[in-house]
Structures are given as structure tokens and as C-alpha cells.
From TrEMBL, chain A:
It is found in: Cell membrane. Belongs to the binding-protein-dependent transport system permease family. It comes from Pseudooceanicola algae. The lineage of its organism: Bacteria, Pseudomonadati, Pseudomonadota, Alphaproteobacteria, Rhodobacterales. One of its GO terms (cellular component) is plasma membrane. The chain crosses the membrane at residues 39-63, 200-229, 241-261, 291-314, 340-360, 395-417. It is a multi-pass membrane protein. GO terms for biological process: transmembrane transport. InterPro entries: ABC_transporter_permease, MetI-like, MetI-like_sf. This is Uncharacterized protein. Keywords: Cell membrane, Membrane, Transmembrane, Transmembrane helix, Transport.
TrEMBL record, chain B:
InterPro entries: BP-dep_ABC_trans_perm, MetI-like, MetI-like_sf. It is found in: Cell membrane. It is a multi-pass membrane protein. Its main location: membrane. One of its GO terms (cellular component) is plasma membrane. The chain crosses the membrane at residues 12-32, 38-56, 63-84, 90-109, 129-151, 201-225, 237-259, 265-288, 309-334, 369-387. This is Uncharacterized protein. Belongs to the binding-protein-dependent transport system permease family. GO terms for biological process: transmembrane transport. Keywords: Cell membrane, Membrane, Transmembrane, Transmembrane helix, Transport. Pfam families: BPD_transp_1 (PF00528). It comes from Pseudooceanicola algae. Gene3D superfamilies: MetI-like.
TrEMBL record, chain C:
SUPFAM superfamilies: Periplasmic binding protein-like II. Transmembrane segments: none annotated. This is Uncharacterized protein. The keyword Signal applies. Belongs to the bacterial solute-binding protein 1 family. It comes from the Bacteria. Coiled coil: none annotated. Keywords: Signal, Transport. One of its GO terms (cellular component) is periplasmic space. Its main location: periplasm. Pfam families: SBP_bac_8. It comes from Pseudooceanicola algae. It is found in: Periplasm.
Length: 426, 402, 453
């Protein structure tokens, strides 16, 4: 337990200056606070269940050698069948350990003989029959254990009916095995594994490239788009709506569209470039290092410039126009106005947006996963989590990468809130 | 530098650049429309731009410039220095010449309109540059937004074979009639897309309701009530908003596996709202803060309880914000892919995005995949265009002061 | 610590009471679930038919669930972890032993099926491949052998030997490669696709290179492996750009732009223009069998260090899972291997050769029936009408001598795990991309493969 760090969500002491309740809380204030907590309770519960708890779980798992199959604790597996006829008739129990290496302790089988069957001679050890109750004490069974025990029986009548009867009563089986998820052996193996490979630093580099250029690109393009639409003209609403399409459309639809468009064989982009004589060979946009990384970054810019553009446009339209009129009186040229009047006004929102988008781009998974699956040098940390956990089935390693992501995120967030408290814009 | 700042020289330079943009745009547009080869002809476009831009200031009216441009493009094409090199038939050629000429002429008339041909003031020079950039911006943005969606729709209407033979040819064979929509028909009949649509729809709607049920009281408390830890709380909401989904998806996957909630729609409906509550909370609290407190206080004076005030006063006042938040949450749930992909296995339970993911495999023709993409995109686009006001507000709500 | 259970359960109950009403499953609950990797609509329809026939015969309803082949491993492991496996999985050989060892498959049940149907009615080679702990891991259903398709007409025109050896292929590539009009070969280069694993294993086997020996892992021989790598680079360099898998290789070949490809016999029907969704585009007639008549095939392929060469076979199996309702699953598999067997094979007869030739009473019942089956999707014709008899014999005959890594040494399970890690694909790709040298590639493969347990 000690090794699982708690989630840091300590408030920074800045920004406490707003609406501080008076000291010495009166009954009214107390009632108000109580009501507030009551209103918040459902949200708090839901969020902690699905956010805080999983986060703790991730930390826990990242210190455990867990693979996907380990999620299923070892268990004794039992099959009952009625076999043979006449003198050969017997109820067979086949028991095996579902795991190949874990020991299961205290395995006991219990079952009831149906009325239509009766015991014929001695049951095989370790089974004991008392009246109609069958009990078999197998004790501890090793990994990979298999065994068949038979209980000789006689019965008369239709064999199918007898079989129904015999197999109708579900045998009970008990046994306990260590569950790797809940026991207390921890290991640093997962972290050692991910930091060991040269691969990790490559992945980190790719992540930073993608995040930085994706974010900066989306901001710059968004700024350009916002300046374009920061005026009233006919059709401005339509264009504004149109430019938001990339963001609003389902990612899976646009990602596959890009893949189709840039396909080296049947992609229109390649056909166009070949026709225009720009290239003489089809270019494999999403399958070549380093081009693939540039392409996914471009996709990121394309998909998220609308968001930047919206925020910047909203900010632009709230800038006081008096300023500009005064500047016009002084004879400032359009570029000067932009440089000395608009930019300072926009810097705040730009920095906040940059940080927010930086964090979100850092967290992006779907886009790259759908475009390249993380191949061709586009594997970022988030895709790495998926790869480790599902493609390699090593949940522990995946969790370790997730912890690394989370650590980066906390770092960014601290920085973000510093800027945020300075920048009251958001 | 000063020599540049005459109307003629500026016009000529901008003319060449604009001509390049026009040539590329028209070539690409014509290629996409006809499937024939078009490519910019460098010498021709430079000459056309130079002449048209350089004389734009001297031709009294804009129409003269446009007429000149069209004639220029036609003449250059005739004498073998085409602005756009093409291998095509007569009709597209004429259309192309008209398009290129009109765009070039109109653009230059707009950019250089009202400028003197002699020296330019700084204002005039910058205004010309800005007009040029504006023109470029419209072309650029419209192209990057429209092309992918155009390709998506057109690919979904083509047969695999036609696509392989000429990936550029998006001209529709109208003689096929209803057969054009074969992909859609097959998706609906053979691939169960009707049920995916329905699943996606009700999952999204349920997500909206649950999200609102949780986030309205929460947002109100954070916005209006004073309690210890309020600022911490509103910050941690934002922090949660920043936790990557994939980091959560892994333990959720494990937990759901153990609880038997994996591969159930119940599990999906359980998990989607949690991903949207922080966003909704954040958006709504920003809006509630902006509501005048006096109205609510008046209600309290009249002896209404807090809850009654929320119900009777705050909510009706914030209907537009609720609409925005609902739309935004609906969009998130509708577009969500990762969780659906990880948690759902059975086609009978697929959401639309999960269904499309399953089309991206093996032997399923490309046009089916694109048809699936269109099916997923159209409803959200329709919603968006119909309620653009709310959507845009929703996207920026609570994020910008004022 | 992972207190999902009590708290989670309570909370979900608390959250969910209202929802549970809305979310009652729309579909009827089925008695059993069947995963299949044959997910094309027409093939699915066949399996739905099989399920319907089975339901009619037994009253047990089966839900047929298509699973993409590349996701099968992940999905199965995940479903196993969740205790949510289907009853029966139609899977390829590479999963049989690893899954049996990991406890996903109930080998006892599979053994029971084969015993009930009669061991001797199954092809012995197939049962050897599936052997596990005295029984079998999973029930062998059908198989095919991988083939090199080549443009007979071009080979004759240029006086080239049929591509039965590395040397012959290299010579043909040199003579015919002229991109983008004609690619010498279309090699598999998409690392995460099974197709690349299959092609590479065939090319490795051809030169007698295997990562497993009698005692488990066996270092890849540097010299022989370098030959393999250099050969593969030759054909990859003569291939179109891009992450290539079966789809592009078929598209390029069908467009008449490739001299050679490696493919499974499944290609035989569309090659003859019987399928609209994958038509030959070499001429304007999508139904033309022109390309088929210009195509020759080779199943046994040899490298310089292994003159005898090797054929590579794939086998499909019905696996009965650990979570199955055993009795229903056994009934279903038995049904699919007897009354429904023709239906199973008819999914795509050109790539599904019967492993069960007949019944105890009629030993050649199914083999004979298979030979009469129509291939094709939009147009139908028996294979015999489309291809010459010796060509069909070549394809089917390959199954008797086909190999896989580890079968002879009893290490198929380990070899399958190695294949499933896709290590070989990754480093071969890095080598052909020019990112690492041949020695480094061999060293890295050895290093990673030795870690596979």
C-alpha cells in the first residue's frame, strides 16, 4: 500500500482570494455548505468511482507483474459426465487446474447422486459417497493438474434420461488460489522494462514532437482562421460552421477518410500528385518514417484548429473597438494595429489555449491509433499503453506507461494552474 | 523596398502569387470533378498573374480586370503556354478557362481595387497584402475542410473497381440510379447498421440526461454556494478533465472485466457520463456565475428554498446554456470511439463508431467504410448546422469572460 | 485494494436501476456464441445458415459473431480474462497450442469430438499438428497451402524459370521489375498483419531456417537467415511502396501490375472473375478469367541452403473454450464436422480443403463432395472448370507435405507464440527499410525470440 502514491490534487495557495466566506461560520453559512456538499455528492461519488479509483488502481497495477490472462484467478475446472453402459456405467468427474503454474489449495468437490442412479461398488479415491452425497477431497492441486475420477453406478431406463439426471445436478467445487492483483508482492519490473529499452525515449521524443507541433500548428492556423472571420459579411455564419466540421465530425470517420485519401494505391491524393507530376512514385504517407509522423501531426492541426479558432474568435469579438478607433486617429496602419493592439489582448487566451491543447494533445489516443496504429515511427505514449496492455497482453507494463503519462500530466497541470491564476481569462 | 510600393509592382507580385493559388486550386478542383489530369503550368500562370496584377490598378473598373483575366487565360492556353496544363475534352477545358480567369480577375480586382498605380502609402500597401491573405485564407480553409468530406461522400458512392482504376475520378455514373447507394443499402441490410445507429442514439441521449442530472446541482453548488474547498474543487474538476482517457480505460477495462460489465451496453452507459460530467460541470458553472444573483436572492426572500430557486428560476434562465451543454455532450458520446472499441465485442451491441471500426478490416470494400463514415457524420452535422448557435456557444461556454 | 467489487457493485446498482429498464437487451438471448474470423458477408451468411440448420436439428440457438482476424488474439485473451469467452472459436493453427496452454481451450472436449467422430476419419498430419497432452488442442476443420502466383505469360515471354527457388524469383524480379507499370513482386511489409507472418515463415522454411529446435528455442543461423533477409529485401525493393498486406498484393496483381505475389488459394475464385467486390482490373471486364489463364502457381519453394524446399500450410480449427457450455459446444462442433461439414467447406471451397475426408461408413464422402462444390461469390463454377487438373493437384497435394515451424520438433506451441509476437516481422521490416544491418537484425531476432516462453 505504501508504494502507491496518492493522487496529487492539492490546491496551490494562489487564487484563494476570491469570495472567501467570513470567519466564524454562522448557522446560515453552515447550512449553505451542507447543501453544497449534498448537491456535489452524486458527482463526487461518480467521479471518484470512475476516475480516482481507476487512477489508484493504475498505480497499484504498475507495480505488479500482471498479464492480461492473470486477471482471471486460477480456478479448478470440473466436468461431469455419465459414461459407459451396464457394468461399465460410471459418473466421471474430470478436474483440472485452469492455471499451469499456480497452486490451488483446498479443492473439494461435492455432488448429489440423482434418484435414478445408485452406487455400484467403491468410488475411486479420493471420493466418498454417503447416502446420495458425493464428496471428493483433492486437497492442493498443482498448476497443470489434471485428473479423472469415476464413480461406478447402475441405473435403468433410457440412457439419455439417465444422462440428463446425472448431469442435471451441478457439482460444487471449491478451492482458493492466490490472486496476483490483490496479494502484496510488488515489483519494479514494469518500470525497469519500459525505461530499459531504447524504445521508450524514442516514444517520448515522438510524443513531444507530435504534441508540440500539433498544438502550435493548430493555434497558428486557428489564429489565421479567426482573423479571417473577425468581420461581418454575408455568409460568415456558414463559413464559421463549415470550418468547425473537422472538429465536430466523429474522429473515426475523418481518420479513415484521411487514410483513404492518402492511400498509396487507391488514394486520390497520390493520384493527384502523380497527375500533376509532383512525384513519380506513389508516396506512402502514413507508412514511412518520418513522413507518417508529419502526417499525423498535420491531421492533428487540421482536426483541432477549429477549436482554437473558436476560442480566439470569441476573445477577438470581446475586444473593445474604441481602442482601434483611437489608433485610427493616430494613423496606425493595419499591421501596426494588429501588432500593438490585438496581439497583447490575445496573448492571454493564446497561452492558456496552448497549455490546454498541449495537455490534450499529449493525451490523444484515437487519432494516431486509427491513422497508423502507432506504426511507422508514430508511436506515442498513449498508444504505447494500449500496445503494451493489449497487443503484448502485459497489463503491468501498460499501467507503468500510464503512470509515466500521468506524472507528465501532473507536471503540466501545475504549470498550467500557475499560468491560469495569472491569466484570469479562462 | 520603396520601389515595391507602387501599385503596379505590388499588383504584379501579388498577381503572380494569386495566380499560382488560383491555378493550383482550379487544377485540383477540376481533377476531382472530372478525373482527368490537370496541373498548373508555371510559365503561363506567372505571365497571367503578372499582366493581370500589374494592370489591375490602371483598368478603371473591376469588370475590366475580370474580362482581361479571362481573355488572358484563354489566349495563353491557345498559344501553348497554358495557365493549367490539361488532358481533357472541350467542355471541361472551357469550364476550366472560365473558372481560372474569373477567379484570377475577381481576386485581383478585389486586392488592387481603388489603389493608385503609382506610389502606395503604407496603409494601402498593407491593405493590399491583407486582402491577398484573406483571399488565400478563404481558398485554403475551404479546401482543407471540404476535400476530405467530399472524398468521403464520393468514395461511398463508387464501386471498388472504379476506384482502383482511377482514384481521381469522382464523377458519378448517374445511370446507375439507386444503385449508387448500394453501399448504404448493404450496410443497413447486411451489416446491421440500423441497429448501430439506434444504439448510438439512445446511448448518447441517456448520456446527456445522466450528465445533466449530475452536473447541474454540482455546477450550481460550485458557482453559487460558499463552502470550504470550493476553489480546490473547481480546479480538480478541470484537472480531471485533463486525465487521459487511455489511462482510465485500462483500469476501467479490468474492473469491468471483473464485474462482468464489459461487453454490455449498461457498462457503456455507466461510463460515458463520467467522461462528460467534468466538462459539463465546468461549462455550466461558468454560465451560472454569469447569471445575475439578484433574481435568485429575490426568490430566496420570497421564501423559496434553494432547490426551488434552482428549479424555478435558475434552470429556466439557463435553458440556452443547457441546450449547448446537451449538444456538446451528445456530440462527445456520439463520437466516442476508444471505450466502445475496448469494451464491446458483440455486433449486437455495437455503437456506430464501433461498427465502423469493424468495417476497417479484411475483405470489406473501401466504399462500405466510407459509407459508414458518412452515416456517422451526417446526423451530427445536421444537428450542428441546425443548432450552430448553441453548438458554438457550447464549445466556448464558460471558457471566455464576457 | 482494487475494491471494485463491493463498492463498484453497489454504486452501479445505485446508478443503474433506472437504466436497467431502458437497456434490456434488444436481441434475443442465444444459447451459445460462436466466434468466426470469416467475416465477409457472404461467408457469414453461410455460417448463419449452418447455425440455423444446427438450431433446427437440436433446438440450440447459436449467435455467430464475426471477429477480425488481426484482433482475434487480443480479443480472446481479453474475453478469457473477463470470463466471457464464446463457446466455440473458429481459429487458425497458430493459436491452438498457446491457447490450450494458457487455459483458454478445453482440449478434453476437443479430443472427445474427434474420438466420437472417429480419429481415422481425420487427416493424420492435421491431428499431429493439433496434438496436445495425449489428445488434441482444438478440432482441425480445413486447411490450405500457400502459393506463389506468377504471370506464366510474362515468364514464358522472358524465358524465365518458374519461381520455385530464391534464385529463380530473383532472376524474374530483375527481368520484370519496371515500376510503376510492373512490380517484380508484392511482398508483405505490414508488420502487424498476419499475412506478413505467413509469408515470412514460408520464406524462412524455404531456406530451412527455424527459430525452434527439439529443445525449444534455437538460435537462427546467421548465414542462412542473412540469405533469407537479403532475398526478402530483393522482393521488397521490387514491391510498391506502403504497408503491404494481402489486400494490396491482390489489387496490384489483379491490375496486371505485378509479376509475382504470395497468396492463399482463396484467391482462386476472384482471380477467375467470380467476385464483384474484388474483380481483376487488368482489363475492362471484371468477370474475365483472362488473368487466371495467364497465372501459374508454385507451392513448394526452396532457398539456397535447403534444396528440397518447403510448402507452408494453414489450418483452421474449431476450438471449444474454457467458458463453453461443453455439451452444446461439442454438439455444435460435431454437427459442423458432419451434417454441416459441406456447408462449412462451402464458405470458400477454393481455400478450405477437407481435413475430414469422410465418415467411418463412407471414407471419402466429404472429399468427393468438396470436389463438386462451386467456388465464387457473384458467379459460381467448380474449380475444375477454371483451372487445369494438374494445377489443382499441385495446390491440394501441398497439404500432405506442408510444414510449419516446430511441428517436427513438437515445439509448435512455442513457435506459434513466437509468430504471435511478430518479432520476426518487425526486424525484417527494419532491415528492408535499411534501418539495421542483417547481422543486427538476426541478433535482435535471436535476442527477442529467446525471451518467448
Amino acid at each position: 500500500m505504501s508504494s502507491a502514491p496518492s493522487v496529487p490534487s492539492r490546491p496551490t495557495d494562489a487564487g484563494q482570494a476570491q469570495a472567501v466566506p467570513p470567519r466564524g461560520r454562522g448557522p446560515l453559512a453552515r447550512r449553505e455548505a451542507r447543501l453544497a456538499w449534498q448537491l456535489l455528492l452524486p458527482t463526487l461519488m461518480a467521479v471518484s468511482l470512475v476516475v480516482i479509483l481507476p487512477l489508484l488502481a493504475i498505480f497499484w497495477i504498475s507495480f505488479k507483474p500482471v498479464t492480461l490472462a492473470d486477471l482471471r484467478p486460477p480456478a479448478p475446472v470440473l466436468r461431469e459426465s455419465l459414461r459407459g453402459e451396464g457394468d461399465e456405467m460410471r459418473v466421471e468427474y474430470r478436474l483440472r487446474n485452469s492455471s499451469r503454474d499456480q497452486l490451488i489449495t483446498g479443492v473439494t468437490l461435492t455432488d448429489t447422486l440423482p434418484d435414478s442412479l445408485s452406487l455400484r461398488g467403491e468410488p475411486e479415491a479420493p471420493c466418498v459417497v454417503e447416502g446420495r452425497d458425493i464428496t471428493c477431497e483433492f486437497g492442493d492441486i498443482e498448476g497443470g493438474f489434471r485428473s479423472t475420477v469415476a464413480i461406478p453406478v447402475t441405473g435403468s431406463g433410457d440412457p439419455d434420461v439417465l444422462e440428463e439426471d446425472a448431469e442435471g445436478s451441478e457439482p460444487g467445487i471449491t478451492g482458493s488460489a492466490p490472486n496476483i492483483l490483490t496479494n502484496f508482492d510488488f515489483t519494479l519490473e514494469n518500470f525497469a522494462r519500459i525505461f530499459n529499452g531504447s524504445e521508450f525515449w524514442g516514444v517520448l521524443g515522438v510524443t513531444l514532437f507530435y504534441t508540440f507541433f500539433g498544438t502550435a500548428g493548430a493555434l497558428i492556423v486557428g489564429l489565421f482562421a479567426a482573423m479571417l472571420l473577425d468581420r461581418s459579411f454575408k455568409g460568415q455564419g456558414i463559413l464559421r460552421g463549415l470550418y468547425l466540421f473537422p472538429y465536430v465530425a466523429p474522429v473515426i470517420a475523418v481518420a479513415f477518410t484521411w487514410v483513404t485519401l492518402f492511400d498509396p494505391f487507391s488514394g486520390s491524393a497520390n493520384a493527384l500528385l502523380l497527375r500533376m507530376g509532383v512525384t513519380h512514385q506513389a508516396i506512402n504517407f502514413f507508412g514511412e518514417k518520418p513522413l507518417a509522423l508529419v502526417m499525423v501531426t498535420l491531421f492533428e492541426v487540421w482536426r483541432y484548429f477549429p477549436l482554437s479558432f473558436l476560442f480566439i474568435l470569441a476573445r477577438m469579438q470581446s475586444i473593445d473597438t474604441d481602442m482601434y478607433e483611437a489608433a485610427d486617429m493616430d494613423g496606425a496602419s493595419p499591421f501596426q494595429k494588429f501588432r500593438y493592439l490585438s496581439m497583447p489582448q490575445l496573448l492571454g487566451i493564446l497561452s492558456v489555449l496552448f497549455l490546454l491543447r498541449f495537455i490534450w494533445t499529449f493525451n490523444k489516443f484515437d487519432d494516431i491509433f486509427l491513422l497508423t496504429g502507432g506504426n511507422a515511427g508514430t508511436r506515442v505514449l498513449t498508444v504505447n499503453v494500449y500496445e503494451q496492455a493489449f497487443a503484448v497482453s502485459n497489463i503491468g507494463a501498460g499501467a507503468a506507461v500510464a503512470v509515466v503519462i500521468f506524472a507528465c500530466l501532473v507536471m503540466f497541470s501545475v504549470f498550467f494552474f500557475r499560468v491560469m491564476s495569472r491569466e484570469e481569462g479562462l | 523596398m520603396q520601389s515595391v510600393k507602387t501599385g503596379d509592382v505590388t499588383g504584379a507580385l501579388l498577381g503572380m502569387l494569386w495566380s499560382l493559388i488560383v491555378a493550383i486550386t482550379v487544377a485540383v478542383a477540376m481533377s476531382f470533378a472530372t478525373g482527368d489530369g490537370f496541373r498548373p503550368g508555371l510559365i503561363g500562370l506567372l505571365i497571367a498573374g503578372l499582366v493581370c496584377g500589374g494592370t489591375a490598378t490602371r483598368l478603371g473598373s473591376g469588370w475590366m480586370t475580370v474580362a482581361l483575366a479571362v481573355v488572358l487565360v484563354a489566349v495563353l492556353t491557345a498559344i501553348g503556354l497554358p495557365v493549367i496544363v490539361s488532358e481533357t475534352t472541350m467542355l471541361p477545358l472551357v469550364v476550366m478557362i472560365l473558372l481560372a480567369g474569373l477567379s484570377l480577375g475577381l481576386g485581383m480586382a478585389k486586392i488592387m481595387g481603388g489603389m493608385p498605380s503609382g506610389a502606395l502609402t503604407r496603409h494601402q500597401f498593407e491593405a493590399a497584402i491583407i486582402r491577398f491573405l484573406t483571399g488565400f485564407g478563404y481558398v485554403f480553409f475551404t479546401a482543407i475542410v471540404i476535400i476530405p468530406f467530399y472524398v468521403m461522400v464520393m468514395t461511398s458512392l463508387k464501386s471498388q473497381q472504379a476506384l482502383l482504376q482511377n482514384p481521381l475520378d469522382f464523377s458519378l455514373d448517374l445511370s446507375r440510379g439507386w444503385d449508387l447507394f448500394r453501399s448504404y443499402y448493404e450496410l443497413m441490410t447486411q451489416y446491421n447498421f440500423g441497429s448501430y445507429l439506434w444504439t448510438s442514439f439512445y446511448v448518447s441521449v441517456l448520456t446527456v440526461f445522466i450528465t445533466l442530472a449530475f452536473s447541474i446541482p454540482g455546477a450550481y453548488a460550485v458557482a453559487r454556494l460558499r463552502f470550504r474547498g470550493r476553489s480546490t474543487f473547481s480546479r480538480s474538476v478541470l484537472l480531471i478533465y485533463m486525465v487521459p482517457m487511455i489511462v482510465l480505460a485500462l483500469p476501467i477495462y479490468i474492473g469491468f472485466s471483473m464485474l462482468g460489465l464489459r461487453n454490455t451496453l449498461f457498462g457503456i452507459v455507466l461510463i460515458y457520463p463520467v467522461t462528460t460530467i467534468p466538462v459539463a460541470l465546468y461549462m455550466l458553472q461558468g454560465y451560472f456565475r454569469g447569471l445575475p444573483a439578484e433574481v435568485e436572492e429575490a426568490g430566496l426572500m420570497d421564501g423559496l428554498s434553494r432547490l426551488a430557486v434552482i428549479w424555478k428560476i435558475t434552470l429556466p434562465l439557463s435553458l440556452p446554456a443547457l441546450a449547448s451543454v446537451s449538444l456538446y455532450v451528445f456530440m462527445i458520446a456520439w463520437n466516442e470511439f476508444l471505450l466502445a472499441f475496448m469494451l464491446l465485442d458483440d455486433p449486437s451491441k455495437f455503437t456506430l463508431t464501433r461498427g465502423i471500426a469493424s468495417l476497417n478490416s479484411s475483405e470489406i470494400p473501401r466504399q462500405h467504410l466510407m459509407a459508414g463514415a458518412v452515416i456517422a457524420t451526417v446526423p451530427i452535422m445536421a444537428l450542428f448546422l441546425g443548432l450552430e448557435r448553441f453548438m458554438t456557444r457550447g464549445l466556448t461556454a464558460g471558457s471566455v469572460k464576457g | 485494494m482494487i475494491a471494485f467489487r463491493p463498492r463498484g457493485a453497489r454504486a452501479s446498482a445505485f446508478l443503474g436501476t433506472a437504466l436497467a429498464l431502458c437497456l434490456a437487451p434488444a436481441a434475443m438471448a442465444q444459447d451459445m456464441r460462436f466466434w468466426t474470423t470469416e467475416e465477409q458477408p457472404e461467408r457469414l451468411a453461410r455460417q448463419e445458415q449452418l447455425a440455423a440448420d444446427f438450431e433446427e436439428a437440436t433446438g440450440i440457438a447459436v449467435e455467430v459473431i464475426p471477429v477480425t482476424e488481426s484482433e482475434l488474439g487480443t480479443r480472446a485473451t481479453a474475453a478469457y480474462a473477463a470470463g466471457d469467452l464464446p463457446d466455440v472459436i473458429y481459429h487458425t493453427l497458430q493459436y491452438a497450442l498457446p491457447w490450450a496452454e494458457a487455459g483458454l481451450l478445453d482440449s478434453d472436449a476437443a479430443t472427445e469430438v474427434v474420438e466420437d467422430l472417429g480419429m481415422d476419419t481425420f487427416a493424420p498430419g492435421a491431428l499431429d499438428m493439433a496434438a496436445y497432452e495425449g489428445g488434441i488442442a482444438s478440432v482441425p476443420v480445413d486447411g490450405w497451402t500457400q502459393m506463389i502466383l506468377y504471370r506464366k505469360d510474362l515468364f514464358e515471354e522472358h524465358d524465365l524459370e518458374p519461381p520455385t527457388t530464391y534464385a529463380a524469383v530473383t532472376a524474374a524480379v530483375e527481368a520484370l521489375n519496371n515500376p510503376p507499370e510492373m512490380y517484380g513482386f508484392v511482398a508483405a511489409t505490414k508488420v502487424d498483419d498476419n499475412f506478413m507472418s505467413q509469408v515470412l515463415e514460408h520464406v524462412f522454411l524455404a531456406n530451412g531456417v527455424s527459430p525452434v529446435g527439439p529443445d525449444g528455442f534455437q538460435e537462427l543461423d546467421v548465414e542462412k537467415t542473412t540469405e533469407v533477409l537479403e532475398f526478402y529485401k530483393t522482393i521488397a525493393d521490387a514491391s510498391p511502396p506502403g504497408d503491404l498486406f494481402w489486400k494490396q498484393s491482390r489489387e496490384v496483381y489483379f491490375a496486371g501490375d505485378a509479376a509475382m505475389i504470395i497468396w492463399s488459394p482463396f484467391i482462386l475464385d476472384e482471380l477467375a472473375g467470380l467476385r464483384d467486390s474484388a474483380p481483376p482490373t487488368i482489363n475492362d471486364d471484371p468477370t474475365s478469367s483472362d488473368l487466371a489463364s495467364k497465372t501459374g502457381i508454385v507451392t513448394n519453394f526452396a532457398g539456397p541452403s535447403n534444396p528440397d524446399g518447403a510448402a507452408w500450410a494453414e489450418m483452421n480449427m474449431f476450438g471449444i473454450t474454457a467458458d463453453a457450455d461443453i455439451d452444446n459446444a461439442i454438439d455444435f462442433v460435431k454437427f459442423s464436422m458432419s451434417e454441416g461439414y459441406m456447408n462449412t467447406l462451402a464458405i470458400a471451397p477454393e481455400g478450405k480443403f477437407p481435413i475430414r475426408a469422410g465418415t467411418e461408413e463412407e471414407p471419402t464422402k466429404y472429399a468427393d463432395g468438396w470436389a463438386q462444390l462451386d467456388v465464387g461469390v457473384d458467379r459460381k463454377a467448380p474449380l475444375g472448370d477454371l483451372y487445369s487438373a494438374d494445377m489443382i493437384d499441385e495446390i491440394v497435394g501441398g497439404l500432405d507435405v506442408a510444414q510449419r515451424w516446430g511441428v517436427e520438433d513438437g515445439q509448435l506451441g512455442l513457435a506459434s507464440k513466437m509468430v504471435n509476437t511478430q518479432v520476426v516481422n518487425r526486424y525484417v521490416r527494419e532491415y528492408i527499410d535499411g534501418a539495421i544491418s542483417a547481422e543486427d537484425a538476426v541478433a535482435k531476432m535471436n535476442d527477442e525470440l529467446s525471451k518467448v516462453q
